[in-house]
Amino acid sequence: MTTPRRILVTGHRGYLGSVMAPHLVAEGHEVVGLDTGYFDDCTLVPGVDDIVTVEKDLRDLDVQDLSGFDAVVHLAALSNDPIGNLDQGWTTDINHTGSVRLAELAKKAGVERFLFSSSCIMYGASTTDVVDETSPLDPKTVYARSKVTAEQEISAMADDAFSPVFLRNGTVYGISPRMRLDTVLNDLVANAVVRGSVQVFSDGSPWRPVVHVEDVARSFALVLDARREDVHDQAFNNGADHLNHQVRELADIAASTVEGATVEVLGQPGADQRTYKADFAKFARTFPDFAWKWDARSGAQELADTYREAGLGVAELDGDRFVRLRWLNRLLSEGRLDGALRWTEATA
Ligand SMILES: NC(=O)c1ccc[n+]([C@@H]2O[C@H](COP(=O)([O-])OP(=O)(O)OC[C@H]3O[C@@H](n4cnc5c(N)ncnc54)[C@H](O)[C@@H]3O)[C@@H](O)[C@H]2O)c1
After folding, report:
1. In a domain, 310, yes or no
2. How far is Cα 261 from Cα 195, in angstroms, rounded to an integer?
3. Are 111 and 74 in contact (CB under 8 A)?
4. To test the ligand 1 pocket, which listed residue (15, 87, 169, 182) has its Cβ within 8 A of the most ligand atoms?
5. Which domain holds residue 74?
């Protein structure tokens, strides 16, 4: 039985958040969201829930904003690696400094549990065969570094009254109202559906752990409800061993959802060869009764079916709306966001 809690979910209007927040409500929690709404115009399928929202930038919060909550689920971030190329300072400001400050305010306000949405990307192009939570971190990008430093500094705040937990997700896939086509399986299936062909720029050998957005929401709900001694100040690779795939395999799975779709492995020099195969034994040991509902095959089918129903075409695939980096660039070029990635007065 879930213990109902009052939870602040940051980033609740994004890809994960627009699935996570309603899931937590359905579990019986009282949810308040906090989001600046960068992607409010980026809805693919209906279903963004009406959640009570603090309309603030994460960087502008004060301690009153955190008072009265039992837990924080912290998703708000500039999310995905190339976004670090936009302006490295923004990724550091929001993902690192903003997260640490949020945790400080939460602790000050007496929030007991703090779930940080982290990433397996922090293991980098690992030389170890399989990476577990004790493996050396080798962040290769500003995004990955922001997750490492935020984890380290938030972990240092853990004490008897404040329990941070770090959930290092694999790459997330699956349908969300605030869809992203810039994560690996979402992108591969979109290409299969729209173009009938899937291109892999690397040689296809890199490993990626993938996890369905609904399963991420379920796993966060589980951790919110877990006994303190099982999760206090712990990092978990969030997923399951059978969800590690080589990119070539994911491309084959994506193509199999569309009759006649082809796969082309380009093996381009300089393509993204980052590889990490994650060990999920700690999560499985801690939560032996939890079953992952989705796998890459069932998720790819769901993606293909929904893309077809939504009429996904070249305009969506090549356009700005469902690729985080492109959309932020568009908001900047239209003057809707300023040089600090804040809404301009005209837009506000
Ligand atoms: N999607 C993935 O594959 C993946 C994998 C591992 C970890 N993560 C992490 O999970 C979290 C959610 O990812 P996502 O895919 O939903 O990203 P997303 O970009 O879809 O959503 C992020 C949300 O945060 C909000 N936000 C960003 N900066 C903000 C600020 N300064 N103030 C207030 N709100 C702000 C945005 O408006 C957006 O709604 C992120 O922390 C991300 O790093 C995601």
Report:
1. no
2. 8
3. no
4. 15
5. 6-176+211-245+278-294+328-333
C-alpha of residue 63 to centroid of ligand 1, in Å: 22
Task: Kindly list the protein residues whose Cβ atom lies closer than 6 A to any atom of ligand 1.
Answer: 11, 13-17, 35-39, 57-59, 75-79, 94, 98, 117, 119, 169, 171-172, 178, 180, 183, 324
Residue count of the chain, please give it.
Answer: 348
Enter the tokens of residue 174. Answer: 């699956």
Q: Output the domain CATH number for residue 219.
A: 3.40.50.720
What would the pLDDT profile of 216-234 be if each residue is shown by its tens digit?
A: 999 999 999 999 999 999 9
Interatomic CA distance for residues 244 and 242, integer angstroms:
6
Domain assignment present for residue 343? The answer is: no
pTM: 0.97
250 assigned to some structural domain = no
Mutate to test the pocket of ligand 1, among 13, 34, 75 (most ligand atoms within 8 A of CB): 75
25 strand-pairing partners: none
Domain count, the chain: 1
Which pair of tokens denotes residue 217?
Answer: 């929401």
Averaging pLDDT over each range in 136-140, 201-205, 256-260, which range is the top one?
256-260
Q: What's the CA-to-centroid distance between 191 and ligand 1, angstroms?
A: 23
Asked, for residue 303, whether it belongs to a domain, the answer is no
Closest CA to 228 of 147, 114, 133, 109: 114
